[in-house]
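Predict structure. Input: LysR family transcriptional regulator, 301 residues.
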Amino acid sequence: MKTDDAILFADVAELGSFKLAADKLGLANSVVSKRIQRLEKDLGVQLLHRTTRKLSLTEAGLSLLPTAKRLAQLSIDAVESVNQLSSEMKGRLNVSVPTISGDLLLAEAIAEFTSLHEGLRIDVTLSNRFVDLIDEGYDLAIRTGYLEDSSLVARHILDSQWIVCASPEYVAKHGRPDSPDALRNHNCLHYTYQSTGAGDWEFFASGTDDKRIVKVSGNFSTNNAAALRKAALAGHGIVYVPRCLVYHDIQEGTLMDLLPKQVAKKLGIYAVYPYTKHPSQKVKALIEHVRQRYLDIAYYF
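Output follows.
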C-alpha cells in the first residue's frame, strides 16, 4: 500500500466525491480514480461503493478510514515542521554555480549572504557541468543555457551576450575580420564548453534577425574560460566568449570587440531549484540576493 494513496482515500471519504478531492488537491479526476483503484488492488479489497449519485464506504473502507486519517494528519504535521525550519534563515544549502559567474560575482555575493544570516551555511560548487540537483543533493543551481528538465523550476535572471574578440597585437599581425565569414581565415581558439559545438559560432545573417552558423577552426581549444581569455590576451588567436568574461579587457583595450552587434549568441542565466509548491524561505531569499547582484552589473553581460 502506498501511503499517498491512503491519504488520498481519506480525502475522498471525507468529501464524498472524487471530483471534490481532485479539485482540493489540484489533480485530474481520472488520476484520483486510478489511485483509489490502485489502493484497492494493493489491499485486495473494495473500499468504496460507487454510484452515479454518491460514494459510500464498504466495511473495509470504514476499517481503513481511521488509519488513513492519522496518516493524513502525520503528513500535515511533517510539512508544518519542515516549513517552520525552512522559514528560518539557518541551516545548510548546497549550491552549484558556473565558473565564469562564480569568479565574477557569485562567490562573493553568496559569501555576503551568509554574513547577513549567521545561522546559515552555504556550500558552493563551481562547475560548468549541469548537475543533477535532486540526485546530488543541491538546493539551488545557477545555470546558463536552456532548461530541459521539467522536474525543475527556473527563474530567469538576465541574458548573457557573447562576443568575438582578439588582442590588438593579433589584429595588427593578422588583420581584422570584417565579417563572420572572414573568420574562416583566422586562428579561432575554441571554448569546448558549448552545447552547439566549439567550432560553430552563431551570427545574425546580414541585415536580418535570422541566425546562421559559421564553422571556424584553430590550433587551441580548452574547456576553461580563464585559460581561453589568457590565450587571447597573449595574442594567440580570436575567441568567442561571454562578454562578462572579457568586459574589463574590452574597456581597457587589451582585447578588441571585432564584430559588434553581429554575434547572435545570447544565453539566459537562471536560478534553478527542484520543483516544490513550497520552496524554502532561505532559497527564495538567496535567489533574490543573487539576482540583485547580477542586475547591479547587468552592463557586464
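The chain has three domains: 3-86, 91-159+267-300, 160-266.
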